[in-house]
Amino acid sequence: MSATATATGFTNPKTPYEEYFSRRSAWLNLPENKHITGTMLIRGIPANDDDDDGDTSNFTTEQMNSLRFIMLTQNRDDQFEAMGKLVLGEQYGSPFMMFGTSFSYDVLNSWDYIKPRLGRMSTDKKFDTLLGYTFTLQEHDAWMSDNEGDMGTLVKGLATVWRNLLKKSDQEIGWDVQYTKPATYEMLRQFKESIEGMDDYFEMGKFKYE
Question: H/E element holding 108?
Answer without folding.
Answer: helix 101-118
